[in-house]
Amino acid sequence: MIRVNNLCFSYTKKPFIENTNFEVESGEIFGFLGPSGAGKSTLQKILTGLITSYRGSVIVNGEEVRRHDNGFYENIGVDFEFPSLYEKLTARENLKFFASLYNKHRDIDKLLLSVGLINDADKKVSDFSKGMKSRLNFIKALLHDPQILFLDEPTSGLDPSSSRVMKDIILDEKTKGKTIILTTHNMYDATELCDRVAFIVDGKIRALDTPRSLIMGRGASKIAYTYLDNGREVRTEIPLCKTSEDETLSRLLRENRLLSIHSGEPTLNDIFVELTGRQLQ
Amino acid sequence: MRPIFRCFVMFLRQISKDGMLYASLAAPLLAGFAFRFGIPAAEAALCGYFGKAAILSEYYLLFDLFLAVMTPYIVCFVSSLVMLTEYDENMTSYMAVTPVGKRGYIVSRLVFPAVISIFASVIIMIIFSLTVWSAPILLITCALSSLLSIAVSLLLVSFSHNRVEGMALGKLTGIILMGLPVPFFLFSGVQYLFSILPSFWIAKLSVEDNYLYAIPALLTSFLWMWVLYGRFVKKLS
Fold first, then answer.
1. Fewest CB within a 10 Å sphere: which of A21, A72, A148, A252?
2. Taking CA atoms, what residue in A is nearest to B236?
3. What order do you get walking across the sheet with A63-64 strand by strand?
4. Distance CA A263, CA A252 (A)
5. Do B94 and A84 touch (CB under 8 A)?
6. Chains A, B: CB contacts under 8 A, how many?
7. Is the predicted ipTM greater than 0.90, yes or no?
8. Measuring CA to CA, which residue among A155, A93, A158 is closest to residue A123?
9. One digit per residue, pLDDT tens: chain A, 281 residues?
10. In this structure, are residues B24 and B70 in contact, taking their beta carbons and an 8 Å threshold?
11. What residue spans define the domains of chain B?
């Protein structure tokens, strides 16, 4: 669905995005993960045709992006990080207008209902809270039922329940076979939603794999347990795969002397820090 | 074309919801009244006071030129303010990723209004002009003025980030109109120092009644538009 070969781009004379290569298959949720200013949004702008002065090849939906015509956007939905809505119009008027730009569109009321905005449909967008604007902006990207969705920080600034609703809709779109490019610096969202993630730092892809492979490839899951030894609390940590070989743990289990036991695995953030020396959030 | 027309309808809707923009569109009409009736009255008063046969009447064509440029200039200025409001609302980038596209957005916000302004300008000139214009020269002057106004708008939207900056820069863009009085006051080769300004060639065309001046007027307008469109696209990315 998306094929990027030897992509190079910079806003200045100093190299930024250099020789980037990756592919995204149809029906996949692909995440760009990185700190602010890493180049995630720039990559998204290139993929959506906002920036066409790149070198290399970027094929989206079978079309070289720099040579796209406007029909290209019939199958692409974009949700920018910051809402792009007409403040003086109501939510319904906004959606009606944007729907009118496409050959086909979904039922507006159903979309409003899906993100809990149906009761505010006739309220002016200027009266909306930040979260409401984010939700409206999100369904605007789904209006024309596009094959590819580009979502930039879709859950940023949302309360947990709204965030859950959005993530469920994203997963629902995936089950319908949509290809989704998710740009985020939220490792939890990336771990939960993405089939594969690319770590981006300073315009370069430092790692690209499934979240599970990245996590498991860098650090095995561990078990940490505590027990009393001569009145003193002792904490021990062992790899999960060595559980049966740990005599102390076996003995403590038999004697019911464990104070606590936890299993744990590194997060994407840990892997990111290990690989790049930078924090995600 | 359908998305571009829808986008243009949204542009008109935005103007209708903004009292200041709506009122601005009446400015060429008010200026027309002031020019048509105020200037001859001032001329009569001045001539009577100084005892001369003509003072302002030698420059009636210059007043007409300002009037011809004013309609497209105001229309495109209003367009620029709508575009800057949309830029503030992140709408400009969004339109670029819809079937409207970057060029379609410019067409709906600048080209359509500019084309309409040609006809409005011709009507205003027919009603309020102080001198007699031949139909072809009038049509060419109004068409070139609308091209010039598109360049002015692109200058505004490329270098301003919001409406307030746009209003401030709007005053400076008047410099582009500086070419209009040049052929009336500078007669030596010095006047060609202003040849980069399309307004200079528009004035030459009208003063000398020579259609050939439409060529440099077109070329300089397109040059300004090409450079500024590039700047605008860069701003979007």
1. A21
2. A50
3. A17-24, A2-9, A55-60, A63-64
4. 16
5. yes
6. 60
7. no
8. A93
9. 899 999 988 888 888 888 889 999 999 999 998 887 888 888 989 999 888 889 999 999 888 988 888 788 999 999 988 889 999 899 999 999 999 999 988 999 999 999 999 999 999 999 999 889 999 999 999 999 999 999 998 888 788 888 899 899 999 999 999 999 999 888 888 888 999 999 888 888 888 888 888 777 766 678 889 999 888 999 998 888 888 889 999 999 998 989 999 887 777 777 777 777 766 55
10. no
11. 2-171
Of residues A189, A185, A202, the one with CA closest to residue A280? A185
Residue with tokens 């592919």: A23
**Amino acid (1-letter code) at residue A49:** G
Q: How far apart are CA B225 and CA B148, in angstroms?
A: 9
Structure-token pair, residue A110:
């159903």
User: What domains are defined for chain A?
Assistant: 2-216 (3.40.50.300), 220-264 (no CATH)
Q: Which residues of B touch A88 (CB under 8 A)?
A: 14, 17
Chain B hits for A80, CB-CB cut-off 8 Å, are: 90, 93-94
Contact: A70, B10; criterion CB under 8 Å = no
Q: Do A50 and B89 touch (CB under 8 A)?
A: no
CA–CA dist B65, B145 (Å, integer): 9
